[in-house]
Amino acid sequence: MTNAPTLKIHNQFLKKALSLLCLLSLFSCASLNLSESRYNLQGKILFTENGEKKDFRIKIIKENESLQVLFLDILGFTQLGEMNALGNEWVYKNNLIDVSIDLTPNDLRYLLEKNRCSKRCNIDATFGDVRVLLKNV
């Protein structure tokens, strides 16, 4: 029994095409998180208010010294509020919810610096009655 020459050519072409596709995907994934001065974190804040447990999603965007915290609904579709760091104070914008956080921007910067989100970062921190769960995205 003999192998057909066209079948061998087809397999070599398919193998080269797949290896090229794999190589391209590796190069595109390699540049996802190379910068240490800029990264995004997202997660959840869990807290109790008037005996009722509440939670919502947060996204923290840090670029050099600027710090921005976005509050999202539990599904992550609707923005409920925003906090921007101005020195060591928070500036609240577009808040649909009443949020007041005792954690200062410097405390949050220290927490981010301490956990140094270079590759995989998971932060699970508790501040009083508030629990913060974050991961690098």
Q: What's the quick description here?
A:
The chain has 137 residues and is α+β, with helices and mostly antiparallel strands. It contains two helices and seven strands, in the order αβββββαββ.
State the main characteristics.
7 strands; 2 helices; 137 residues; alpha+beta; elongated
Structural account:
It is a single chain. Helices cover 27% and strands 42% of the residues. By secondary structure, the chain is of the alpha+beta class. Mean pLDDT is 67; it is low at 27-38. A 7-stranded antiparallel β-sheet has the order 5-4-3-2-1-7-6. A hairpin with a 2-residue loop joins strand 1 (38-49) and strand 2 (52-63). It contains 2 helices and 7 strands. The longest helix has 26 residues, at 5-30. It has 2 domains: 1-32; 38-136, no CATH class.
Question: Helical proportion?
Answer: 25-40%
Strand content: 35-45%
Kindly state the number of beta strands: 7
Q: How many structural domains does the protein architecture include?
A: 2
Topology (elements, then pairings):
Elements: H1 5-30, E1 38-49, E2 52-63, E3 66-72, E4 79-86, E5 89-93, H2 105-115, E6 122-127, E7 130-136
Antiparallel strand pairs: 1-2, 1-7, 2-3, 3-4, 4-5, 6-7
